[in-house]
Protein: Transposase
Organism: Deinococcus aerolatus
Amino acid sequence: MLPAAKSGGRPYAVDLHEVLCAILYVLQGGIVWRNLPHDFPAWQTLDSYFRRFEVNGSWEAINRVLVRNTRVAAGRDPEPSAGIRDAQTVRCAPQAGPRGVDAGKKTNGRKQHILTDTVGLLLVVLITTGDIQDRDGGKMALMYMRRRFMRLRHVWADSGDRGKLGT
């Protein structure tokens, strides 16, 4: 599912399996790129591949396949028909980039709007500034979800999504 080298171009200088292992090591350990063990490729190379995979949709494709396979292994339909939506505000420093104040929690940071299936598998994550209401972020996440999961018909949400959420 990872992109092949461009035809007519230079072959990859690093092993994509090593790149993927290093990226997963960073994500699982919650460490910064510069703290990677030295047996992995250079952190600048890994960061470049991570961002490239994000832009070209590789991470989304990998997630889609893993969700489908995990659901089938659990004896369920590969496409979810129901999900659960929630939002969480996370504090962040000014150096981290755009942020906003969640008035309800009095927290300055970002908000993650998450949609999972009923098994708990991650379907959609939308990151916004903290000042976006849960309901408005939920609408954006649902619009994205609609394009990706055509069979999903029921979504449960908490009281933060009061009002008309459906689009």
Notes: The chain has two domains: 16-56, 80-161.
